[in-house]
What does this fold into?
Amino acid sequence: MRRTAEDFASKVPEVTFVFWLIKVAATTLGETGGDSVTMTMHLGYLIGTAIFLTAFVVLVGVQIAAKKFHPVIYWAVIVASTTAGTTMADFADRSLGIGYTGGSSILFVCLMAALGLWYWSLGSISVETVGTPKVEAFYWAAITFSQTLGTALGDWIADTTGLGYEGGALVFAAGLAVLAVAYYRTNVSRVLLFWAAFILTRPLGATVGDFLDKPVNHGGLALSRPIASAVIAVFIIACIAVLPQRAGRPGQAETVR
It folds into this structure.
């Protein structure tokens, strides 16, 4: 039986400017949405984590059961992972008293372990190979750790270092700019650059989200968390509806060297 290009397509989107645009918006929504439930609605970090983690697990199941890439399903899982990452990181950092430095260190180790096991098991951590349940399991585990790490890292840079939310956002934006230069000007592995960028976009979104909704005396704009979340959600939906996306194709990204 002759196989078409679609048979080889990944179940995640091709990494383009549209991907990164929606990703940054989704990470910002994760921060404002998570804070809306835990702080504005006063449900606390533990209940917020239970709500979003349950939604994330259900949506991952739907994503894995799907036969091909569906933008709405994929980005719904990403948004669920960012909100769950926000509440989980806040619960660990604040409720458990681990602190931003300790939380960031633990989550970094967990992320490296997930990526290492993925590479050891399958020989590649390229997102364009995500097309089977086993690979998707590794992918979403890495995504979860990276999203949670991003929240803790964003809070650590903004609060512990004294840079504030604006300063933190500038630091992570500068880091992404360096990665962009490396992508266009060097031969550094595209897979490594992707994961570095994916990790950095989370704290960028976290610091931007905190800047939007935190009180003025804490360096924020004190905007309504639910309203900010709704506006960002509408923006993401509009991007999905208007901007073209297609599944990634195996072999388009270079392997880890």
The radius of gyration is 18 Å. Residues 1-8, 252-257 have pLDDT under 50 and may be disordered.
